[in-house]
Amino acid sequence: MNKNKENYILPEMRREANRSRRNTAAECSRFVMSEEAENLGRGKKYYIRTYGCQANVRDGETMAGMLELMGFVMTESVEEADVLIFNTCAIRQAAEDRVFGEIGSLKSVKARHPGQIICLCGCMAQEEVVVEKILQSYPQVDLVFGTHNLWRLPQLLVKVMTEGERTIEVDSEDGDLIEEMPVRRSASCKGFVHIMYGCDKFCTYCIVPYTRGRERSRRPQDILDEVISLKQQGMKEAVLLGQNVNAYGKDLKIEDGFTKLLESCAETGIERIRFYTSHPRDYSVTTIDAMVRYPNIMKSLHLPVQSGSDEILKRMNRGYTADHFRQLYDEMRAKISDITFTTDLIVGFPSETDEQFEATLDLVDYCQFDMAYSFVYSPRSGTPAAKMADDIPLSVKKERLQILNDRLSAIASKRNEAYVGRTLKVLCEGPSKKNQNVYSGYSEENKLVNFTGPAGLKDRIVDVKIEASHSFSLDGSAL
Ligand code: 5AD
Ligand code: SF4
């Protein structure tokens, strides 16, 4: 492989930190497959390993779509794959360490499969420190590309496969929105739909605004076309995705854009609509009103709060206080009393005192979350918080996480008990991962339900009588 560094386009995370908030709409282009890329994959196999959030899952589906258009066939085996893609997440250090561990172990796999192409993409590829490490210590990686030029995958593979050139192409400019990209969906009952890309919030701990670029909204019609196509394929659920969906349409100068979009998606008549993730600062109560008006907008809201301490929220640059969050919660419960409410929480942010951690526990008690993703703070190089002293010992962070998780799980158990004896409408995703004799799926309330029933329920919405409850799932049988 040619290791000429001059040909590399290396990431520049710092440029994202200084980017202007243009707040203008991104240009749109249409995806086209070049002639040289067509048929490049005939007789060859690909394997994609995706880490992280649903946005990454959706990106993985686009890559699979492109590869299949090129003639590649999917394989479940790392050994067999001619093209191996690591679609990565950078949100915490542990996620990155795992990827490096796995790529490290591929050296021997590649030795047995000469010509195997190993690619790294996704959020990690946007970080200078990661690409430097790849260049220095991971010669087995042939191709690195970033989140902004995912659509270039076919062309980049032409370069690597036909010219034998090691390629690093990580754009730091977000560029055009590319529409009409091929897709191979991983689920048959629900489909993910990006409504926007990037994030302008710059929470001080978070790397996403640097790795995913500025907020760019897709045009409403492109989104609606995708939702309609899901419905036409028989999918029951559309899941709308964005780092901060409440900011949807700001760049397109659409007022209250997210609620309007949600309503138009509901009007397509698809059976279920969900959306992730909301932000308390931009959140509009009109979204809850839309949930009340449209029965096919599911009554669950994921609203990350991160901390219950005003001082920590300020240092996180979240732009709201704990009381403001409590008010949002009260308003929401007043409008939809049985809404499922979930959140994200971080413990051990720099300088977090015992009292500030207690304030998080108080907020958890107040909001009675159905479920929460809880994390130990992980410093991310290049973010403002990484310059603050990471002064909470790991043992204290872990202890706080344990206390928080115990509290969350006690609340979740109590909330789930209330479902025993009720009948829920569950979208059956197929056999449960843990037990092939049991189905699993999500109810309208977004509760994970494991249930027994006759053959043939996959991809159908099934009435399930709930017989038992656990902290984070329910058991039942199909009626
Ligand atoms: N450390 C720990 N958790 C983080 N998150 C984002 N950045 C970090 C970090 N540096 C969490 C936040 C966010 C979720 C997706 O990941 O809670 O809402
Ligand atoms: Fe990260 Fe904050 Fe943007 Fe969420 S809103 S992606 S936590 S910067």
Give the helices and strands, then pairings.
Layout: H1 13-17, E1 28-30, E2 45-50, H2 54-69, E3 73-74, E4 83-88, H3 93-112, E5 117-122, H4 128-137, E6 143-145, H5 153-163, E7 167-169, E8 177-179, E9 190-194, E10 196-197, H6 208-211, E11 216-217, H7 220-232, E12 237-241, H8 257-267, E13 272-276, H9 285-293, E14 300-302, H10 310-315, H11 322-335, E15 340-347, H12 354-367, E16 371-376, H13 394-417, E17 423-431, E18 439-443, E19 448-452, E20 461-469, E21 474-478
Parallel strand pairs: 1-8, 2-3, 2-4, 4-5, 5-6, 6-7, 9-12, 12-13, 14-15, 15-16, 19-21
Antiparallel strand pairs: 10-11, 17-18, 17-20, 18-19, 20-21
Helix pairs in contact: 9-11, 12-13
5'-deoxyadenosine binds next to β15.
Describe the structure.
- The chain has 479 residues and is α/β, with parallel strands linked by helices.
- The chain folds into 4 domains: 165 residues, Rossmann fold, CATH 3.40.50.12160; 110 residues, Transcription Regulator spoIIAA; 119 residues, 2-Layer Sandwich (Transcription Regulator spoIIAA), CATH 3.30.750; 56 residues, OB fold (Dihydrolipoamide Acetyltransferase, E2P) (Beta Barrel), CATH 2.40.50.
- The chain is built from 13 helices and 21 strands.
- It has a 6-stranded parallel sheet, with helices on both faces. A 5-stranded mixed barrel has the order 17-18-19-21-20.
- Helix 9 runs parallel beside helix 11 and helix 12 packs parallel to helix 13.
- The protein is globular, with a radius of gyration of 23 Å.
- The structure holds 5'-deoxyadenosine and iron/sulfur cluster.
- 5'-deoxyadenosine (5AD) binds next to strand 15.
